[in-house]
Batch of 2 targets.
Target 1
Amino acid sequence: MRRSTLLLLSFALVAWVAQLVIFSGFVIDDSFISMRFAQHLAEGEGIVWNRGEAPVEGFTSFLWILVLAVPHVIATSLAEPLARVGGVLAVSGLALWLFRMLRARFGDFPAAFAIVPLLAGTPYVINSVSGMETGLAILLAGLGHPLACAGILEKDARRLGWYQLVALLACMTRPDYALCYAATMVGGYALAWRLPTRGELGRVAGYFVLPGIIYFAWRWSYFGYFLPNPFYIKAGGSGSQSIVYVGTFLVLFAAPAVATLLLGVRDRETRKLAALTLLSFSAPVGAYLFVTPMMGVYWRFLIPYYAVVPIGVAASIAVRSGWTLRVLVAAQVMLALSTLPLASEYAGRSGGFTNVLRDLGDAMARAHPEGEALVAMNDVGIVPYFGGWKVLDTLGLCDDPLAHDEMGQEERISQLAPDVILLHEPRATHEKYDMDALSVSYEEIGRIPYLRGTLHSDIVVWAQPQSPVAAPLRAELSATEFIPATLEPSPIQAVYEAIRTVYHGGSAKDAPEAAAD
């Protein structure tokens, strides 16, 4: 193996391990939404948000719910570590498999260059340890594309069949993968300048279409809606949020790979493979220009589609040499390094929030262990999972009437009259809660800071004075020592706030905080 290849691999591996250490305590609040659904499924309640209520599809990854139900059957305490370790194993395992496969086909250096973002790219580390389904989505997308390329462009019927199965699982993990699948199938046969054979159509029908129809019909009848609730909540984008979300991803993470693919399209030898890879990547990523993404700057929804890129990049780079190759490699290394300081700041900010939420959930569980009280809140991950209360998700992901615009927030809160309202203050301002109206029926019983060094970083707890849970919850909040994170002002924090200000479409002080990221 050449020295240049060893240096590139060494850089990627060192960056991977170092960032795993930095983000060892990182977890996304939203990951516990999936865990709550999985816990109820494991208990025999079905896929429900609140025990004893109707099913609701407040998640986008049905397959991840099934995966997480397994540790909940064995021991609930295993769910979080297994979710996080599973994400790390999925991404690192994919990188190893891709390197071996690409090395055998294109050589050492192209294979090493192609997998650098998977290991050295901070967004991959963050999303692999987050506890979300992202690691599984990355794995399936990365496995599927080489199979599709071989199956369609090289007429390998066996691999085409395997691709159909992987694509089915990928769609069950992330429904928007269907866009990637459609672009790959249509684009592949168009680039190959042929129609699928009868045997290929049989594999498509038997391994993807028919099982997909059965699954889709079941989930539609079970949940009652055409798509999961997050798709309804996040529809109607195309403003500055979506442009920043997609644009920063392309510029700060995907630029060298996209440039490599464009160069590959120019070469006769690599034209079809590079063009198909570019189509498969661009279709789902471009679709997010028309969606309002409700996550932050580390591209959780886009990162899995970058995993389709390595085979096209390796093929394209294999025919490159000279200054073009050096520029592409240098750009990829620089981009991998550039996001690390910003990510470290993000981890500290988010860590303060999630640690406080864990303590708050535990306090609520102690205050009302029966779990029959109702709390309305706008960050519905960690606190509901550990608190065990019934929860009204005021954002609407886990509440059908809100998700489908059958009523507004204030009307829904008035209808259900929750015992407690728990508001993440910046998001409450951003979502325009009528705080004056709330104060008529509720009184503030707690204000919990989660981040020292910034304004408007409190979790505010309101309760109905006559509710039987008000007094014990107030006592638990007073007795609990909440330890927020502390951030010192820095240039990195200024960059972070600037990006968030544009992304969230408001002032930095009013923007949703780290859990929304």
Note: The longest strand covers residues 443-449.
Target 2
Amino acid sequence: MGRCFQRGWIATRALFLASIALLLPALAMHSVASIAMADDQHNPARSESALAAGEIQTGETVIREAGAIETTEVDRFTALVDAHAPTAELARNLQAQEPADAADSLETLESSDSAEVLHSMDDEAAAEALANMELPLAAGVIEDLPADEAARYLALMDPDDAADLLQSVDNEQAQLLLANMPRLKAATLAQLAVYDPETAGGLMTTDLVRFAADSSIGQAIQNLRIHAKTDFAQTRVYCVDNKQRLAGAITLRALLLNDPEKRIKDVMDAEVPALRPEIDREDVARAFDRYDYLDLPVIDEHQRLLGVVTIDDVIDIIREEHTEDAFRQVGVTSEAESVYASLTTKIRSRFPWLLINLGMATMAALVVLTFEGLIDEIAILAVIMPIIANQAGNAGHQSLAVTLRGIVLKEVRRGRTGPLLMRETLLGLFSGAVIGFIIGLALAVMGAAGLHDEAGWKLGAIAAISMAGSLSIGCFVGTAIPLVLDRLRFDPATGSSIFVTMLTDTASFFTFLGLAYRLQGWLNLASG
């Protein structure tokens, strides 16, 4: 046993050194210099603070870079919390922050402490911060607030955000919150909460400006000025007939440039793409991406205007769908799980897939166990086989990622799966041949240099052939699994990573060890 371990360690070290010698050195990344303003040279403290916050000062104007995330605001809030600052001071600090930053700050607190701080804030600032929090955390804060206060905050939120929060609490709590709201607001939120959050109806907001198609442009502008006093983010205004059916849309530019005496119906665009409330949110995001929409109306079966889905909702969809697919690939399937999900939710989401993974990993282990005697005789095999399995697994996951993306974006055509499988398999064969040559050359150099008595060009040839075969199998499997799952009408991302890992490991171990077993006489390394 000690001799096998010593030989395995020598082989590992030699393989590592040989591989390093064959690789090109990586290029160093260049750093980008910062630009300091002349005013900041006289005030180094201001300069350091501005750069930390992502701001550039020009005269009397402070410009904040759009990509800068103000982590310093959260840090300052955390410092106040650590210093046991009064709740009123914490509230004033949060009100000075952007809503997204205030939400991040609140998420550093326990839900009961967050509720206490929100209680000391202005209602509008508190509602905006609560709306930007992660849903599981915001739901916890809602439950710690008095029902009338929580209902007040929900009533001040955008309807779609408030509806999402209502769906995140239990039904009894949701009914209590609705009972404490103004009747009209409660009816609106109750209607939105009926829609599945995974559909266009669950994404839309009912807080939109609409004009009667028969009204004049002058009247429309007057109405628009009234709404402009509140948060108005529409890029165009939707027009309805006397039955509230969608009749068309008009841009703000058209409103400003046309004669105020003209009727809206004479200048509006009567052909407006629209969504039905039951459309899946992935299809909504795909429509926005394909046709560069900024907003789309949602209509019912009678063409009545229900609400609008805006681009900011679609950005959230893309982020959430990407996260969901990433979770499902590794066997995290609960849609409710997040970083702050409960322990019960996390166990229910992950543990079944861990059991499945255990069974799959056992298959690969059984292959290795079958060749236990061969590995005892040729210890260097134990060093080489994980390298081949690792490369095959990486190749399989590359093909998996590309194929999943193609399925999601509808790029994979049903009649073109054969050429796709062939192309990916040939890619694996080529990549495996090149990488196999490198491994084979390293083993040949080790044998010629006398670094290990089991290494040599023959073992290198076996490793090279096995590498080429394993990578071609890996690319084939990584492409085939999501295609098969999609054809069977399962989510192609669900558990696909686990299946790819199991199949590539099993195939790699069997290919390499099986070939070495068949050719052990040729290797002249078998005893007896």
Note: DSSP finds 26 helices and seven strands in the chain.
